[in-house]
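Hello,

I think I submitted the LLP job twice by accident. Can you confirm which output corresponds to this input? Input:
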Amino acid sequence: MIEFLKQKNLEVKKNHLFIGGCDCVELVEKYDTPLYVINKDTIVQRYHSLKNALLEHYDKIEIHYAAKANTNMSILKLLNEEGAHLDCVSTGEIYLALKAGFAPEKILYTGNNYRDDEFQFALEKGVMINLDALSQIKRLVNVLDAVNMEKPLISFRVNPEFGGGFHDHCITAGPDIKFGILDSEIIEAYKKAQQYGFTKFGIHTHIGSGILDISTFKVAAQKYLDIISKIKKNLDIDFEFIDFGGGLGIPYRPSEKPLDLNEYSTSILDLFKKKIEELNLNGLIFSIEPGRYLVAESTIILSQVNTIKETRTKNWIGIDAGFNVLVRPTMYGSYHEVVVANRVGVKGKQLKYEIAGPICESGDVIAKDRTLPKIEENDLIAILDAGAYGFSMSSSYNSKLLPAEIMVSNGKSQIVRERQVYEDLTHHQHFYQDL
Ligand code: LLP
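Support: Only one job matched these inputs. Its output is below.
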């Protein structure tokens, strides 16, 4: 377990959990719970180790952080400062990214089922657009004409009909999946774009999320490259970039091994480089779009135990973070490691526990069947690996207030998102009048 904590840059001192040099018990005294705690240094480390692993094999690498994993403005600002590019899936994400300092040309907008006003927003801001369906080309051209703009670089999301992922909801390629353009239509897509007068092209795919098995990426890469060859041979397109999407998994369980970055980079880039040479696509940019890999392990949620309950079959712990704060266990059955942050490694009696949140639904269980030291009210539970799809998927269901987020580094902590207050619940609501 200590080894697992170490991988996540977590330390234990005098039985207290420490993150970014800060004692979790003191953080909670200062900021209350439920609390998201983001370790700035872990994000920087993950970004650079991934980038350096890729650069060992190819020199035109871009890492597009998938903002959906976590759109905290401080994380966006940090990754921008480190040199990352960005994958945005909505105009809201583009808005936040620009506010956080990203140059528009570093953003690729991969929307799904775009509205015309979303095309317009992206075009006016100067971000690149990645189309997801054949029918969208004509609509994009209409918007371009309406705002009197030149044809920008355009790319298409390819569905190589092979995907992977830790849960059915997170497999994003395959014959029955809503995303991307299938092999059978892809030539037509680029041809149409050429006919409309587009001259600069990229290509994109994303096969799914939470993948730890490198062979899944290899099979997808091979299929993707066959499609790229076909386009190049038929239409003689010189791509500006090939984007291979995200999906890099992280170990949520102590029994899981971290992704071997060297193996990932070697096997994927060997395939791409061969094809780049064969097709004479020299000088193109190879990009990937990791979300989870960069931010998941940076963050823990701290939550206070407020209830202990024994039923005939189970020992329950009630905490103040439920699926309003972290929906992954309820939504996907995801496992998140938990640690008793005020008593790590304390010897003594161990019991099996179910850890439930405060939401009025039986599915509000954050962790099941966990062996922990005998828990008491006011113990502090740390939920690990909550940096990706944690806060970004949180909600105010049951009219719960959204938690605060703090960032830590070198023993210092700062609030980066205020805890909601009751007034936020009525914000933007109006009583009807004379209806
Ligand atoms: N690129 C595109 C186009 C995507 O749709 C996604 C994720 C990514 C990149 C980043 O994938 P990552 O590297 O983070 O695996 N809510 C789920 C994950 C959904 C991912 C959706 N798309 C979860 O809680 O695990």
